[in-house]
Amino acid sequence: MRLLLDTQVWFWWMMGSPRLAPAARAAIADAGNDPLISAASVLELMGKRRIGILPAMQRLADHVEEEIDLAGFGRLPITTAHAVRAETIAEGHPDPFDKLLIAQALIEDIALISNDTSFDRFGVRRLWERAISPA
Asked: No. of H helices and E strands in the chain?
């Protein structure tokens, strides 16, 4: 199964954080799944580095391509279709990076791993504590 990691989930995975739910951790680690990092999450990471947020993620920001490869994650580019769909979410969500992740999950029919329940109102299949929430 293809899985799109929310930016925070990606950070928690890379840091080995206990904040990552066991079901989410297991899904990411499952060799039968294909965890993906969105270009939107990379853009968010670089922006946070630029303004000095998340110093613990400095190595990830400095070596993002290598770290994605080492983690065994794939990449999900942003397409024009993703950008157009994200704009339709404009009124419903304030975070531009989350809007892109929502659009990508919907268009690509990918489960999104996130603890953010606000994604649910957009029909995203979200995996966190137990199973994928219904679309």
From this structure: 7, 5
The answer to whether the CB of 115 falls within 8 A of the CB of 128 is: yes
Contacts of 97 (CB under 8 A, 6+ apart): 7, 40, 41, 43, 44
The rounded distance, in Å, linking the Cα atoms of 46 and 124 is 25
Phi/psi of residue 101, each to 5°?
Answer: -65, -40
Return the pLDDT at 17.
92
**H or E segment to which residue 35 belongs:** strand 34-38
Residues 6+ apart with CB under 8 A from 93: 99, 102, 118, 122
- Is the Cβ–Cβ distance between 97 and 44 less than 8 Å? yes
Q: What is the pTM of this model?
A: 0.91
